[in-house]
Structure formats: C-alpha cells, structure tokens
Specification:
alpha+beta; 343 residues; five-stranded antiparallel β-sheet; single chain; D-amino Acid Aminotransferase, Chain A, domain 1; eight-stranded antiparallel β-sheet
C-alpha cells in the first residue's frame, strides 16, 4: 500500500516471473513525504487513474514497454477509452508485478542494498526514482546542488524565477528509504543492481518526451517528473504511474496545476508544520535513523472545504483537458486555474 493508492496482489511475482495485481486509487493525498493527510479530495483517485492510464497507453503506442494491463471495470481490464465510453471514470488499474524484497536498515551501516538484490533474482522493482527536469523552479533543490553552467545555461548564478533548460536534466534518487536523497552516478549504479543506469536514463528521456508532447498539445507545460521501473529478465518496464498531477509538475497559463498547488498552500497557511517536518528530517539525518516522522512534534491541520473544492476541480478539469474528454463534471481548465490563483 502507498499513501494514495491501495495495492492488490492476484498472483505473486517470483524471482523469475512477473505476477499480476492492481492499484486502486484513493482520494487521499500526501505532501512533504508525510503520507496520508487529514483530508480526502473528491474524485482525485479517478482523476489520477484516468490520466495515468491515458499516459501508459501513449507510451505503449510509442513502443515504450510498461507494466500496465488496462483499467479495471467490473473485474475486467479494459483500455481507458473503452472504459470511458461506458461512462465510468476508472479507479483501478491492472498491472504486472515484480518483487520488492525487504531493504534492511542498520543505524551504523545504513540501508543494505546487497541484501535487497540477493533476494531480488532477475525480477524486481528497481529501488530508484529516475527524475527528469525540463524547467528549474524557484524552489528546486537542483539550485542548491548544481550550478547553471553545468546544464548549458549562460548564467553565473541561478536567476530568481523559473528557468527552462536547453535539455532535460536526469537524476537518480532513492525510492524505498524513509527520506528521498539524490545520488551520484556511482551510488545510483550500485543501488540499481543488474539494471543499467544508461538504459534507465534513456527510458526516462523517452517518457519525458511523450508526456511533454502531449502536454503541449493540450495547453500545458510539463516542467518535471519521474519514472519508476521494473527489471525483468534483462528488460526494463516503466512502472508505478506516469504523468499525473501527483507524479509530475505541470503548469497552465503560468499557474501550477499539479500537487505543487497543495504544497505551496501548506507552506503559506501551515508554515509551522512544514518547518517541523524539515527539522524532523534533519534530526533523523543527524541521528542516523530512518524514522523521521516519529521525531516530528506537529501534525498537519485539515484543509478548509473550499480549498478541497478548488483542488478537486483542478484535478478533474486538468484531467478532462489533458485526455481530451469530458470525464468529470467540472469547470473548464481556465476557470479551475482562476480559482487556484484566488487561494
């Protein structure tokens, strides 16, 4: 189970063979790695499932292999257009499964990736997130870790506003650690196991290209995102979910239309909690422990009803615009974006 979707196993994966299962998307949301927040956003799960399925089908049409098998309606996997033709916004996605071995943690030695891969065989979820960036926002961590010239930019220092990159930057971060951390190529290669780092990067660039092109066709700007991958018998499959408003950052008419809206709203309205999360993560690093959340002395407050309504309309209107169908009863994307600007 993840913080925003439930995980169902029909046929377990083995060291050699893929299994079968599904994701069921809930209306929960998560920001700052907190996990399930106090509220639900109506229709969010159906929005993410629809948009994720649409993108998987775009990837497969482009020859990019994935673990996607269709959306589930009445127990049967269907392509997303067929499901929508039945008047149903799907909430469940059928997928192929790979193994996820335990990742042991020792306070002195850290995470034991050797043990992970010893148990993984030739069929496992690569314990990395492959992050790609087309634009560097004002709050991007890339600013503190690199210089503009490293990315082909003619700037001595990072400008205050967002900066478009001449070519997408691809980075690797941890997937199963309590706190995500960016990795240098040598450590990323070690953590990837049998999966080739160059192939993971090439796959991420192809996914980025497909999503960026679809975004441009529908009036969005695709700023950044990530993929997760399955390694199976020498091949890589794009896994988890791709190109949704939770996994990726998009903007429309200069306004964020992704989960970033909720992150920024919490920064403005609950700065004490956001600061407490940052302090707890820093203290966990200092102590060399994995559980930062147990060190946090504050919890987030629920959101006001009108904010949940604005978030719901943004997810639904954005999905309608991106997939090119009236899946949800929602305002136009222009109207939804205008409401976000008023928050």
């Amino acid at each position: 189970m993840t913080s925003v979707k439930d995980f169902r196993v029909e046929e377990p994966a083995t060291p050699e063979a893929l299994g079968r299962g599904s994701f069921r998307f809930t209306d929960d949301y998560s920001v700052f790695d907190w996990g399930k927040m106090p509220d639900e956003i109506p229709d969010k799960g159906a929005s993410l499932c629809t948009m994720g399925a649409f993108n998987f089908e775009l990837l497969e049409a482009a020859g990019i292999p994935t673990h996607y098998r269709g959306v589930v309606i009445d127990g049967e996997p269907l392509d997303v257009d067929t499901a929508l033709d039945h008047g149903v916004a799907p909430r469940e996605m059928a997928i192929d499964l790979a193994q996820v071995p335990d990742l042991p943690f020792d306070e002195r030695e850290g995470y034991d990736y050797d043990a992970y891969h010893e148990a993984a065989g030739s069929n496992y979820v690569v314990p990395l997130e492959v992050v790609f960036r087309n634009r560097v926002g004002a709050g991007s961590s890339l600013r503190s870790r690199t210089e503009p010239g490293e990315h082909g930019l003619d700037h001595g220092a990072w400008p205050e506003g967002a900066v478009d990159l001449p070519e997408a930057v691809v980075e690797f971060s941890t997937k199963y650690e309590e706190q995500d951390r960016y990795l240098d190529p040598a450590e990323a290669d070690r953590i990837a196991g049998a999966a080739e780092l160059a192939e993971l990067e090439a796959l991420a660039r192809e996914v980025n290209r497909v999503v960026t092109e679809r975004a441009a066709e529908t009036g969005f700007v695709h700023q950044d995102g990530k993929i997760e991958c399955v390694y199976h018998d020498g091949d890589l499959l794009v896994a988890d979910v791709v190109g949704t408003f939770d996994e990726n950052r998009f903007s429309y008419d200069g306004q964020q239309v992704s989960k970033e809206v909720l992150r920024q709203y919490h920064k403005r309205t609950q700065p004490g909690w956001v600061e407490a999360v940052g302090a707890a993560k820093a203290e966990a690093d200092r102590r060399g422990v994995a559980d930062w959340k147990g060190l946090c002395d504050r919890a987030p407050d629920p959101l006001e009803n009108h904010v949940l309504g604005v978030a719901r309309d943004l997810y639904c209107a954005g999905t309608n615009a991106y997939v090119g169908r009236e899946v949800f009863d929602a305002p136009t994307i222009d109207e939804a974006v205008a409401s976000v600007r008023d928050l």
